[in-house]
Design a protein that fits this description.
This protein is of the alpha/beta class and 305 residues long. The chain has 11 helices and 9 strands. The structure holds phosphoric acid mono(formamide)ester.
């Protein structure tokens, strides 16, 4: 029988069967969110703590909604309004939260490996909600769910991931998941934003966006992660957008049924032109909707059984 372990720390730790289990479970969770009364008693009596050391709109809100729709008690902690600002370490914060006996801690942190640290220390389940430039596994799972919803399968698809690959935990988790599930992945971006070793991950690097998107089924555009860059990696936003921004003209090189995705938040007019953002090709809000279902599925699989 396929099951998840105690924690969800990265796509790296999941088998294709475990990924399919999460996606299949999310299907029934999505149905709960479509009901008039969006609540089931599955996690009654369970406690979830969302511990966020970095800003978030989509991930934090969807984890909170996911917990509440499953009837868990959900507590949100932002580092900026907690005792972290008084100098408390992550380890001590974790120990103190554990003393209140939660079942699950959802952690977003600027340091790669922070969720692994808490997972080793604490008996609670830990979900990685993004650790530095390392992994964002729940984003990759919701992206996979969204693609599968439209294309029925991931097997055999060609997915382009374009933009600031180096600083993107979304790219790393998506590459890992898509390859495990039988998709082909091309990456594209300024050479200064694509790791030199990238082809060792099993992807193809295509420097020109027009060429990268030829025949692609899905294009994932990434945000420029200014907050993680040291020094300027491109001459100007205008030049970046000219070469690596997606617009109607460049989209002529893609298939007619191509899907455009973005993990958000979008820099409108930089990564994707406003007219494409509001076009039927773009399924960014489907990604957001499906984020709740994926996080409900993970909570159920980790602490509901
Ligand atoms: N995609 C994503 O992680 O968005 P937030 O930073 O708003 O959570």
């Amino acid at each position: 029988m396929v099951m998840l372990g105690k924690d969800l720390l990265g796509i790296h730790d999941l088998t294709p069967d475990q990924i399919s289990l999460v996606l299949d479970t999310a299907l029934s969770m999505k149905e709960v969110s479509a009901r008039e009364i969006k609540k089931v008693p599955t996690l009654r009596g369970k406690t979830v703590i969302n511990l966020f050391y970095e800003p978030s709109t989509r991930t934090r809100t969807s984890f909170e909604l996911a917990g509440k729709r499953l009837s868990a008690d959900v507590i949100n902690i932002s580092a900026g309004s907690s005792s972290v600002v008084k100098g408390e370490t992550l380890e001590d914060t974790g120990r103190n939260l554990q003393a209140m006996n939660p079942d699950l801690i959802v952690l977003r942190h600027a340091s790669a490996g922070a969720p692994q640290l808490l997972a080793k220390m604490l008996p609670s389940s830990i979900i990685n909600a993004g650790d530095g430039a390392h992994e964002h596994p729940t984003q990759a799972l919701l992206d996979a769910f969204t693609i599968r919803e439209r294309k029925q399968t991931l097997q055999g698809l060609t997915v382009v991931i374009a933009g600031d690959i180096t600083h993107s935990r979304v790219a790393r988790s998506n590459i890992d998941l898509l390859l495990k599930m039988g998709a082909t992945v091309r990456v594209c971006g300024p050479r200064t934003m694509v790791p030199l070793y990238i082809e060792k991950m099993g992807v193809t690097f295509v420097p020109r966006l027009e060429e990268a998107i030829e025949g692609a089924d899905v294009i994932m555009m990434l945000r420029i992660q200014m907050e993680r860059q040291r020094g300027s990696l491109f001459p100007s936003i205008r030049e970046y957008s000219r070469f690596f921004g997606l617009n109607r003209e460049k989209l002529k090189h893609a298939r007619d049924d191509v899907l455009i995705m973005h993990p958000g938040p979008v820099n409108r007019g930089v990564e994707i032109s406003p007219e494409l953002l509001d076009s039927p090709y773009t399924i960014i809000l489907d990604q957001v909707t499906n984020g709740v279902a994926i996080r409900m599925a993970l909570m159920y699989l980790l602490i509901g059984k």
